[in-house]
From TrEMBL:
EC number: 1.14.13.2
Lineage: Bacteria, Thermotogati, Deinococcota, Deinococci, Deinococcales
Name of the protein described by the UniProt record: 4-hydroxybenzoate 3-monooxygenase
SUPFAM superfamilies in UniProt: FAD-linked reductases, C-terminal domain, FAD/NAD(P)-binding domain
Keyword Cytoplasm: no
Pfam families: FAD_binding_3
Domain FAD-binding span(s) in chain numbering: 7-347
Gene Ontology MF, one: 4-hydroxybenzoate 3-monooxygenase activity
Length: 395
């Protein structure tokens, strides 16, 4: 027998960036919610992921009063470096975009801040739940059933349900009439975490005949680096000395610059795909973030795109509760998709331009080199890259 159902205006499935930002945005407008999360708080806060935050995401965190630690501990980058053909080029985003920068503040730190602040302002996040099931989505009283952390059945009665359960979640399966678009890439990334000081003050993206490499950072003591590898390669098959020799070859293409080595304490392989679900709502269910779309990591868009969906959904719900208007909710999918397809395009463009694709012929390889050459020599092309990287304005 299930305990007495709890009522909440908005039931949010998933405590990732989409779900937690949504909970904060709604709370700011006086709309309460309950977040259900299958993982424990420790797991959510301990999953180390990148955090290249677009300027407006940073501004939003500040507006929500969530920016204090990010301001102190985040790293502000005014641009990126592109390396190819043995040359290195700096793109100065601040100059190209009229003052916008990117902030490197890892995703798990963002989540830690959002969780702490939400619990402090009276919000409910139920961690460690199981068997989450959605019911009555085309009625005015949708419900979520689940088992709490002790395995007991519980029920949440809502006005709306937000499916923010990521790429492996099930909420997307409830969206009837959807079409799914997918593009697979014939390569992946071998990522490593290294105990070392930074080798450079900004990110370096390198295209090399032997494959792509990226130099990134997590903190002053921990660095993140990636090497292009096969899509199904196993991280354990890459000994440390092979990783370092490949990173040196692909990144040290410029005289006088050297990569600082350190102890590698984590290796993993990340697959690369682009995915879009072209309907993001069904009845009273709205899906947001990775539940609806995936981008390859080359454009650093995943987290920011999830937050943008949360902003659009919060606006729709604010109009519904504040003014009794449904038009923004009805337009939710269309509004999100305009931004999503542009982020998909940019992520695909960065990925194809910077990787060596074994399936491409020499003509196509030279086209990508011409693209890079164009970007670093034309202010117009550099500006287009910069304005996408720092984040297009929200509609
Ligand atoms: P998330 O972050 O996956 O959060 C979804 C949450 O839902 C929970 N969940 C459920 N909860 C309740 N009931 C269920 N039935 C549930 N099923 C799942 C999950 O436990 C999880 O906590 O999705 P969200 O909020 O849409 O946010 C999306 C971003 O997290 C994602 O786009 C980025 O992390 C993508 N991403 C990267 N983005 C970047 O911008 N730069 C990167 O370098 C970068 N690297 C990455 C990444 C994603 C990765 N994975 C594993 C998907 C590297 C990796 C490995
Ligand atoms: C990362 O730091 O993990 C990172 C940075 C930029 C990207 C992708 C990943 O484009």
């Amino acid at each position: 027998m299930s305990a007495t159902p709890v009522r909440t205006p908005v039931g949010i499935v998933g405590a990732g960036p989409a779900g937690l930002f949504l909970a904060h945005l709604l709370h700011r407008q006086g709309i309460e919610s309950v977040v259900l999360e299958t993982r424990s708080r420790e797991e959510v806060e301990g999953t180390i992921r990148a955090g290249v935050l677009e300027q407006w995401t940073v501004d939003l965190m500040q507006d929500l009063g969530l920016g204090d630690r990010m301001r102190r501990e985040g790293h502000f980058h005014r641009g990126i470096t592109l390396r190819f053909n043995g040359e290195s080029w700096h793109l100065d985003f601040e100059d190209l975009t009229g003052g916008k920068r990117v902030t490197v503040y890892p995703q798990h730190e963002v989540l830690r801040d959002l969780i702490a602040a939400r619990l402090a302002n009276g919000g409910e996040i139920r961690f460690g739940v199981q068997d989450v099931q959605l019911h009555g989505l085309t009625t005015d009283r949708p419900r979520i059933t689940y088992r709490n952390g002790d395995g007991e059945p519980e029920e949440l009665h809502c006005d709306f349900i937000a499916g923010c359960d990521g790429s492996q979640g099930t909420s997307r399966q409830h969206v009837e009439g959807r079409t799914e678009y997918q593009h697979l890439y014939p390569f992946g990334w071998l990522g490593i975490l290294v105990e070392a000081p930074p080798s450079h003050h900004e990110l370096i993206y390198a295209r090399h005949g032997r494959g792509f490499a990226l130099l990134s950072t997590r903190s002053p003591d921990i660095q993140r680096m990636y090497l292009q590898c096969g899509p199904t390669d196993n991280a354990a098959d890459f000994p440390d000395d092979l990783i370092w020799s490949e990173l040196h070859r692909r990144l040290e293409t410029v005289d006088g610059w050297t990569l600082t080595e350190g102890r590698i304490f984590q290796k993993n392989v990340i697959g690369m795909r682009s995915f879009v679900c072209d309907r993001m709502q069904h009845g009273r269910l709205y899906i947001a973030g990775d539940a609806a779309h995936i981008v390859p990591p080359t454009g650093a868009k995943g987290l920011n795109l999830a937050v943008a969906d949360a902003v659009y959904l919060a606006r729709g719900l604010e109009d519904f509760y504040g003014r009794g208007r449904r038009d923004r909710l009805e337009q939710y999918t269309a509004t999100c998709l305009r931004r999503i397809w542009k982020a998909e395009r940019f992520s695909w463009y960065m990925t194809t331009m910077l990787h060596t694709n074994p399936a491409e012929d020499p003509f196509e390889q030279r086209i990508h080199l011409a693209d890079l050459d164009y970007v670093v020599h034309s202010r117009a092309a550099a500006t287009a890259l910069a304005e996408n990287y720092v984040g297009l304005p929200l509609d």
